Amino acid sequence: MSKVKIQTSLGNITVRLYDETPLHRDNFLKLAKEGFYNGTLFHRVIKDFMIQGGDPDSRDCSPNAQLGVGGPDYTIPAEIVPGLIHKRGALAAARQGDEVNPERRSSGSQFYIVWGQQYKQGQISQLNKQLAMQAEQNTFNSLVAKHRNEIMQMRKNRDRDGLMALQEELVAETHALLTEQGPQGLSDLQKEIYTTIGGTPHLDGQYTVFGEVTEGLDVVEKIQNTATGRADRPKEDISMTLCVIED
Question: Which of 54, 157, 177, 186 is deepest in the core (most CB within 10 A)?
Fold first, then answer.
């Protein structure tokens, strides 16, 4: 079992890294051992959401520095594993958005720790419906993208009948794919965790979760409650030093 201690001015946070995400585990351990993170900041903090760090540009930076785009010269293939979810205390990899990163590859160094919120049953039911609708829309959009050239040609030719027929075909294919995949939305485990422990369920399946806090969740709470300024950067710098806990 691999563990890393994140030492900060507000206290220490110990995280356990998941063996189910070996690429992220090994990369995080490597960078921690090399001292890559030492002196970097938690540069982005959003109350009731998460705390983010790991940008090497945040080390010894000016108060007005633009942060959040730094990292090593590589990204990591996504390791999005069902069951590893964004519960409170989850350790996950930051990444660029889908529009420039459709494979959802992770930043080589930037990470965030989830705080989120605890949901009521009614909120979970509503969120579950939204996620199911989003899954349907995403599936349909991906099918549309595959037929982009055909659609553009039909539009150019003003072939309304062809467009309508293709749309009906893609809608049917979307429903068939979703039926094959099984129930959409939150699992029973997700519903239980997000109504008891809390977290950020809308991020599940979007980012790689590769560990969780085992000690120091109170420190995460302190950090996520800190006063922030421009670009969600804490007004008082919160730097970190990482050390690997050997078994």
Answer: 54
